[in-house]
Amino acid sequence: MATSLAPDSYVRLFNGEQAQMIFSDPPWNVPIAGNVSGIGKVKRDNFAVACGEMSSTEFENFLQTAHGHASAHSTDGSIHIVCMGWSKMRELY
Fold it and tell me: What is the mean pLDDT of residues 27-36?
């Protein structure tokens, strides 16, 4: 299971503290090949999760779970900066 989906990983990370800011760059659910695989000698492999294999609904659930855990460990009014490709804005929203 991806660490971002495991509630216990947040408990260990935050150790009872609350975040005032979160910066995240979750997987974008796009295949690496043809998108960000590189044009030179170096070719990138797919990530373990969210490399285009999820449906829109599955990806929305993935994002909701991961960011829900982060929010649960954040103060009211905290700032959350999330990097995401433009083609996945609907799922992120």
Answer: 78
The Cα-based distances of 49 to 27, 53, 63, 72, 85 in angstroms read 7, 8, 12, 23, 16
Query: C-alpha distances in angstroms, 86 versus 6, 40, 41, 48, 91?
Result: 27, 24, 27, 21, 10
Checking 50-58 for CB contacts under 8 A at 24+ apart, the result is 50/26, 51/27, 53/29, 54/29, 56/90, 56/91
Contact 32, 46 (CB under 8 A): yes
Contact status, residue 72 vs residue 14, Cβ threshold 8 Å: no
Rounded to whole angstroms, the Cα distance separating 67 from 63 reads 6
Asked if residue 79 has pLDDT above 60, the reply is yes
Q: How many Å from the N-terminal Cα to the C-terminal Cα in the chain?
A: 23
| Helix 56-72 with 7-14: angle, nearest 10 deg | 30
